[in-house]
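Note to self: user wants both folds in one dump. Writing first protein now.
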Amino acid sequence: QVQLVESGGGLVQAGGSLRLSCAASGRTFSNYAMGWFRQAPGKEREFVASISRSGGSTDYAGSVKGRFTISRDNAKNTVYLQMNSLKPEDTAVYYCAATAYMLSNNREHYDYWGQGTQVTVSS
């Protein structure tokens, strides 16, 4: 019922920055908390960041805290992930997702997923 489309991925040097966007359609965007997850080849999909419906609360994985910032613009039905000081270990496919929960780092709580955007960080 909710369609999510990520964009903004690409190739960047270590220490550089990227801003990912996730555009939502199909349902009222502000009814959902949103999250970003990532998955490297051969590894489990892992939590990166989440944001509440209003944007008043956020949560981050310890590996990205202080470097990444999640935000949302409900007027544009879009959630963002600003990624600074990128490291090679940040290389993965990044997915945005929507949940009816208030705020969650558990991928089992997320009902809708985008198709992902590739982020590659070179040494």
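First done. Writing the second protein, which came from a different request thread.
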Amino acid sequence: QVTLAESGGDSVQAGGSLRLSCAISAYTRASRCVAWFRQGPGDQREGVAGVHTGGGQPTYADSVAGRFTIPRDSGDESVSLQMNSLKPEDSGMYYCAAARPEISPWTCARLQEDSFGYWGQGTQVTVSS
């Protein structure tokens, strides 16, 4: 059963912007923590942004803070990732993930892979110089 589906990945010039979207099924909609991860060539998967609807603001990895945002008007059926001022090192496969429903906002904000039980297929982002 496919419960998450990313879209919006593309090739873009450095300094440009891109908006990703993650469609969330009714099954995974019960999760209060949804996050974005990415993986570059030869790298481990890295949490970049996440939001817990039960409390607090979205959280961001230091590498993307100030450039990436999860829009505040994201609905329960989808979550977006707005990426601005893109750099070549932002290139990689971007994944949407949903955490187990019981995890806390603090655990959600840590963006650790083992907190997330549902994953999309990924969407490719390529940033050129």
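Dump finished. Worth passing along: The chain has a mean pLDDT of 90.
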